Amino acid sequence: MSLVTGTRDSVGEGSGLTLVLGPSDDLRAEIYIRAWLPSGVVDPRLGGTLVGPRCRWASTLPVVARLAAANPAPGAAAALAKTVLTEPSYWTPDLPNVYRLEARLADGDHTVATFDMMVGLRRLGVRGRSFWLDGRRWVPRGVSRVAATCDPAALHQAGLGVAMVDPPAGLCCAADEIGMPIIGFLATASGASLDPQAAAGRIAAWAIHPSVVLAVVPAENSPGEAAAIAALARGLKGTLLIGAVVDGGSPPPPAVAEGIDCLVVSLAGAALPHAAWRDAAPALPLVAWRPGRIETGSDRRGCDVLQADLAAWGLADGAARPAWDWAGYIVA
């Protein structure tokens, strides 16, 4: 099962919410809502409604689905509720459908926490060397931005996403509604590695947003630390994918950390990958990242230039076609 994502407006102290997409297809989706219990709760009750869909780029009559109590896993310190949507509308950049979730966690008659969230049902995963979104191969193209210079509407219109260090919640909310994918880089002080527990917490916060598709562990973290982050985030991230930065100027790593879904291959300036990547690249999605600024005329043009450069590199040994395809592209 995979996490449904959304934005949280109000939460009681010491509690949190996880939303899980159960068996689902184009006609029916089971949604489980889990509220983690703060200490002292003896009679937990979880209820509420899910209303929608709402989409900026399409009109659909909304439906109201009520939450029904369900039994949590044995020993879980959580209250669980379930609802079923017929003919669900999933979140994609082209059709960023969202639902409004209003939920109340109570201890008997006493309110412990309330939740008011816009949530998106996102079917995102990996098949071989590619990303798949809502049943189709998807190639993300993104540009590096800071929050102050990011225009979600303009990037969405250009067919682009954004790559950003620690994207703020307000920008993620706007991207959820507009349909702009976000690749979030976990920040680290220069030369320092991330604390796995803190990193997993940040991934969990991003995972409530359907627009945040990829969380990236920096190169400063060892494979063991990257695996620890992925393990801690496993039950929190849902369909959000986790990537790790590697140096494309060196040969491919001999192994990939457990739990890492893709590699972000950093290319200095206009450099191309080390020749060993042609035949020895790990068999998982590889995203090309050109972090140095190169003037190409436009953001989309920058991604197109990077893609063309890598296509020519893939054929440099005389092959009729590249041995594999890149899964995505990021430029500055």
Helical element count?
Answer: 6
Rg from Cα? 21 Å
Question: And the CATH topology of the largest domain?
Answer: TIM Barrel
Q: Roughly what fraction of the amino acids lie in strands?
A: 35-45%
Shape: globular
Q: Mind telling me the CATH superfamily name of the largest domain?
A: Glycosidases
In total, how many beta strands? 20
The SSE string, one letter per element, is EEEEEEEEEEEEEHEHEHEHEEHEHE
- Helices and strands: which structural class? alpha/beta
Largest sheet: 9 strands, antiparallel
Architecture overview:
- It is a single chain.
- This protein is α/β, with parallel strands linked by helices and 332 residues long.
- It folds into two domains: 2-120, Immunoglobulins (Immunoglobulin-like, Sandwich), CATH 2.60.40.10; 124-331, TIM Barrel (Alpha-Beta Barrel).
- It has six helices and 20 strands.
- The chain has a nine-stranded antiparallel beta sheet with strand order 5-4-8-9-1-2-3-7-6. Strands 13-14-15-16-17-18-19-20 form an eight-stranded parallel β-barrel, surrounded by four helices. Strands 10-11-12 form a three-stranded antiparallel beta sheet, with no helix packed on it.
- Strand 13 (141-144), helix 1 (152-157) and strand 14 form a beta-alpha-beta unit.
- Helix 3 crosses helix 4 (223-233).
- The chain starts with a strand and ends with a strand.
